[in-house]
Give the backbone structure.
Amino acid sequence: MGRPRRPLVAVLAFSMAAAACSGGAGPDTTASTASTTASTTATTTTPTATPTQAAAPHSAAPNGLGDPYFPGLGNTGYDVEHYLIDLTVEPALNRIEGTTTIEAVATADYDSFTLDFAGLDIADITIDGAAVDYRREGPQESELRVEAPLVTGESFSVAVAYSGIPDPTEPGALGFPTGWLTNREGTFVASEPAGAHTWFPCNDHPSDKAAFTFRITVPAGMTGVANGTLVDTAATAAGAATFVWEMPDPMATYLATVVVAPLERIEHPPMGDVVLRDYLPPSMDVPESFTLTGDMIDFFDDLFGPYPFDEYGHVVVSGFPAALETQTMTVFGEEWFDSPFTEFVVAHELAHQWFGDAVSPSTWRDVWLNEGFATYAELLWVEHLYGAAAMQAEAATRYADLAGTPHAITGDPQPEALFGMSVYQRGGLTLHALRAAAGDEAFFEILRTWMERYGSGAASTAEFIALAEEVSGADLDDLFQAWLYSSQLPPLPSP
Ligand SMILES: [Zn+2]
């Protein structure tokens, strides 16, 4: 595409998650709402099991990991190593049925523990193959207490068999529901930040990442797409097929996706060892911006370090006024193809594979580590295409927008502004300021070291600041304080 005109890129990152939702009054949003309504009955199921009466040498593991914005998310007492999500999907009914099996290691001694899981009918739960009692608890009954002990250091396998119509979250900061959603061609999943546990039981917090296997059985004419590598496609009864996907690298729960629709796989020339594939509606021509993915990986590799996964690409869906960086398989709303921003959305979601996916935020308060970095990657792509002056002009435009708009505290935006312009644009300009202060060499060394040190886990803002000071040798307290924690906007940085 041509050089981005001034106002266009400026609204890009913000519009990606937020402004785009203003277009969300279309028919597909209605579809999601309808599915929410229809599934209400699925949440009223009463578990048949009863709590055990065993003596309690230890206490029950508490719900929640104490995330400052979502205190109920995540669970204590164990660390998940692997999820096997085995689901049969009936898109026409928006119904799922199957089993999620969680391999985990206990990190403490407790009499019982919880999974995050809301709605859906549970058939049974087993631990290492033996049936166990369970009950729902907590707000919206979104905690599933499993009456089985945890012994520090011991591995266990918990399997939850369930069925029903998933009930997505209420619209939050994004302005639309998250979780398992419907659209005109089938179903898709976009779970950030808190929708994953509405379709599979999990430790629903980015601080506990795990490998995933998906076995998705779909009706004739449909394709089942998930994260990672497609390792098997097996025909089953009546033209149905099971698609098996492996995501061997640690992945946060909100980045897990399943898309079921008529989709065509498009292969692109690989970039180095990275397999590039997109899943598009059958009638769709390959978007020009998708053909740039290899060049973008090549460019970002040099700046951020090697692309962190084996594969990358997009799955295009209707009814999603956004794009989400679901690991190795970005869910890309088709509405972006009507906008002049497409190429920059492609760059933004790709950059998230390093920032957000490989290095995930320790808590949701650290979300600028995702969005500020992916937004700054758009500016880096502008610089790559059009030069430093164009990039600085673009930064100035975004700065002017920020200066003219009341916005949240970047380093502590609160849940309602989780995807607001302070997180995206001021977060991006925080990195611009860091680059100006540290110089190019130290700045990109900071980014590469960040990837090397935290690249399969999660990290916090404090850890980023400490690392930036360590690599640059500079005292950066004032800089980060001004950009991340002050309500006043510091002067526009100029490298
Ligand atoms: Zn983003």
Remarks:
- Residues 356-485 form a domain with the Neutral Protease; domain 2 fold (CATH 1.10.390.10).
- The longest strand covers residues 78-90.
